[in-house]
Amino acid sequence: MQHVGCALGLRLDKKSNRVYVLLGDGELDEGQIWEAAMTAGHHKVDNLIAIVDRNDCQIDGRTSNVMNLEPLIEKWKAFNWHVLECYGNDVEDFISKVNQAKELIGKPKVIVARTLMGNGVSFMQDDYKWHGVPPNEEQGKQALSELPPTKYGDFIEFEWEKPSPYNPSPQLGEGCHDTVVTRRGS
Fold first, then answer.
1. Buried (b) or exposed (e) across 72-101, using 16+ Cβ within 10 A?
2. Pairing relation of β-strands 109-114 and 19-24?
């Protein structure tokens, strides 16, 4: 995986940047993940922070049934990583663990964020069958109506996503100006 090479390259260039990598727990079935983890631990790549979305869901079932990952925490520790755990659906808890990981030195860090896929949406929550399946318009409206607003905003809409009479299908990257939009349109 390229993230280990990026982190090592930054270290060789004496740069203080960090590399973040997000891993789904289903992805951990792949051998290249563990080869990279072993390499990062061996070389003490401490500018690397991995985040594992541990929701026990992958496209064809529960990770515990498809390929049991446990004991997951012990595996990361065996590869010489600092291991932190949090409840990933709690944004404050997650941010706290990211900040804690930034302070740890001498080894790569992994945050195992235990999450519920579709958290807060009655018909999606903890249902692996929604992995990779978009909701239709009616389901999308229902999902948004069930999610409470957060201090981080409801969702982001970019200007280039909005068709105009002058540019009915704008290209990605053209005129990208962030605006925060809530379900109330304000």
1. bbebbeebbbbbbbbebbeeeebeebbeeb
2. unpaired
Tokens standing for residue 129: 């069958």
Give, as one character, the DSSP assignment of residue 125: T
What's the whole-model pTM score? 0.79
Mind listing the pLDDT tens digit for each residue in 47-67?
Answer: 999 999 999 998 889 999 999
pLDDT band at 132 (very low <50, low <70, confident <90, very high): confident
Give dist(CA 70, CA 68) in Å, integer.
Answer: 6
Residue at 6 is within a domain: yes
Q: Are residues 163 and 75 in the same domain?
A: no
